[in-house]
Design a protein that fits this description.
single chain; alpha/beta; 8-stranded mixed sheet; 8 strands; 38% helix; globular; disordered C terminus
């Protein structure tokens, strides 16, 4: 009997401008398999926030190096003009990012319209987490890879990207309208917040989608999970009072929530791997320390260049395993 082909998942964490880390790792991967070809090697691509932007780009065949270039050349445009009147507005205006995303997605699409989720290249399945304040609930935007997924396919990709990356305090919750492909009806797409508030590491969402809706056995899954760099929050000093400003300063509370969720998912998936050797799991990430740390809204080109260099060095050590495990010559055909 012919062996069942493995079901391969690519998962990319959120992390703002730290998306240069997975973007560079994927760029190195593309240097071996060809630019714009990553989507051909994976059956499901999951991405949150900056990882969602990368996932959407990959699904259109946009080379990872183009996303890396977008981040490196526009960090100051996205995060350059900081607002300190935080009582009235968030730290940053989301319009520059929206303009950049419209351009990069549309210039790689062969019609005058903005590409929608349904325009992901053939066989590319997507999961993009966001949070809907209208419903007060989690919302995972998906390609129409099964017959019951009939709504999300109408949403333009740039809106999906803006929704999943609308990090609280950094940007406004994202709102817009789109026109349905079939009927021309105008639909609201309102008050969406960064999926990182509950799924900064979307790996588990990918596993659940694969084992339920896509009817895959866990032992048939290969999962490549790319982080954006983690910094462990440690506070050994005793404090009688932990004031609100302590948690707001340096955005500790946002980063801690997102990083702790990512760590929990990694630990949980690692546990699944330990109890099922046939389930292949590879996590690629970087741990920051007091000598080197990059913030979600960092614009220092020296720091970003060093993060890119560190990603390339990690690929030097991990690249062969990733290529052999996830990018063998027999491309995905499901």
């Amino acid at each position: 009997m012919e062996a069942e082909k493995p079901f391969k998942i690519l998962s990319i964490d959120g992390g703002g401008i730290k998306g240069v880390f997975p973007a560079k790792f994927l760029t190195c991967l593309e240097e071996e398999i060809g630019p714009g070809n990553i989507h051909k090697h994976f059956d499901l691509i999951c991405g949150t926030s900056t990882g969602g932007i990368i996932a959407l780009a990959l699904s259109l065949g946009i080379p990872a190096k183009e996303v890396l270039k977008l981040y490196q050349e526009n960090a100051k445009k996205i995060f350059g003009s900081k607002n300190w009147n935080i009582i009235k507005r968030p730290f940053y205006d989301n319009k520059p990012l929206e303009g950049l995303l419209k351009d990069i997605f549309k210039q790689n699409h062969d019609t005058d319209d903005h590409p929608r989720i349904a325009d992901a290249l053939k066989r590319t399945r997507l999961l993009i987490p966001t949070y809907s304040l209208v419903d007060g609930s989690t919302q995972v935007l998906k390609t129409p890879h099964t017959s019951d997924l009939i709504i999300d396919k109408h949403v333009p990709m740039y809106m999906v990207a803006m929704a999943t990356s609308a990090a609280p305090t950094y940007f406004n919750a994202y709102s817009n309208q789109f026109t349905r492909i079939d009927s021309g009806t105008i639909e609201d797409f309102s008050n969406k917040v960064d999926g990182g508030v509950y799924a900064n590491n979307p790996s588990m969402l990918g596993i659940i989608e694969a084992t339920t809706r896509l009817e895959q056995k866990l032992e048939n899954i290969k999962l490549l999970s790319l982080g954006t760099g983690q910094y462990k929050y440690e506070e050994a000093k005793k404090k009688k009072i932990w004031p609100v400003l302590y948690w707001l300063a340096k955005k500790r509370i946002i980063e801690m929530f997102m990083q702790s969720q990512a760590q929990l998912v990694h630990n949980s998936v690692e546990l699944l791997h330990r109890f099922n050797d046939d389930f292949i799991y590879k996590r690629v990430d970087l741990e920051f320390n007091h000598n080197f740390k990059v913030e979600m809204d960092d614009t220092d080109p020296n720091k970003l260049n060093k993060l890119v260099e560190k990603s390339a060095r990690i690929f030097q050590y991990e690249g062969k395993y990733v290529l052999d495990t996830f990018c063998v010559s027999n491309l995905t055909t499901t």
